[in-house]
Design goal:
Shape: globular
Number of strands: 10
Strand order of the largest sheet: 4-3-2-1-10-9-8-7-6-5
Number of helices: 3
Order of helices and strands: HEHHEEEEEEEEE
Largest sheet: 10 strands, antiparallel
Strand content: 35-45%
CATH class: Mainly Beta
CATH topology: Lipocalin
């Protein structure tokens, strides 16, 4: 009886050891997102962004609306090529050469945006979504990079600021190169 129980317990341990992936077999953090992606249509993206900005700023007064639209257009240019890469212990998102870097473990990291303003960057992976937060002095941009089957990546963008009447949202389609 003891030998049967011991054999069964040894077989269960062996089965678990074979079934459990080793560290080298597990997917590296953010691996499903790493790559180079291209916009399906920069012209369509430009129109999508413009429509979202117009809708989101419509309730504002004329002067504030004009200033808000100009600033939003400046920081929400359509991106032709998007790269996501791991460099050591950091994740990098590169939007047509504008790079944002943060820690792989989700800790925030401060850097500068293309205008030289301080921005805090935070990345977090949850299933097929890479959540990115870019927090500046006058607002926050959240991008959910949603990886779907095949070569598709959708950016779901949310723009938030105390100066806006509501969150501005838009989605942009990309494909892997």
């Amino acid at each position: 009886m003891k030998s049967t129980a011991l054999a069964a317990s040894s077989a269960a341990a062996l089965l678990f050891a074979v079934a459990a992936p080793t560290h080298s077999q597990q997917e590296a953090p953010y691996a499903r997102f790493v790559g180079t992606y291209e916009s399906d249509s920069v012209a369509a993206d430009r129109q999508t962004i413009e429509d979202a900005i117009l809708r989101g700023t419509e309730p504002m007064g004329p002067l504030r609306r004009s200033v808000a639209r100009r600033r939003l257009r400046n920081v929400n240019e359509p991106v032709r090529v998007l790269r996501i890469l791991v460099e050591g212990e950091h994740l990098v998102t590169d939007f047509d050469g504008d790079r944002y870097v943060s820690h792989l473990d989700g800790r925030p990291q401060r850097g500068r945006d293309p205008e030289g303003k301080i921005v805090t960057v935070i990345y977090r992976e949850a299933g097929n979504v890479l959540h990115a937060r870019y927090v500046g002095e006058d607002g926050e941009k959240r991008i959910d990079f949603v990886r779907s089957t095949g070569d598709r990546l959708t950016l779901s963008v949310s723009l938030m600021s105390d100066q806006l009447p509501a969150t501005i949202r838009y989605r942009l389609p990309y494909h892997a190169r």
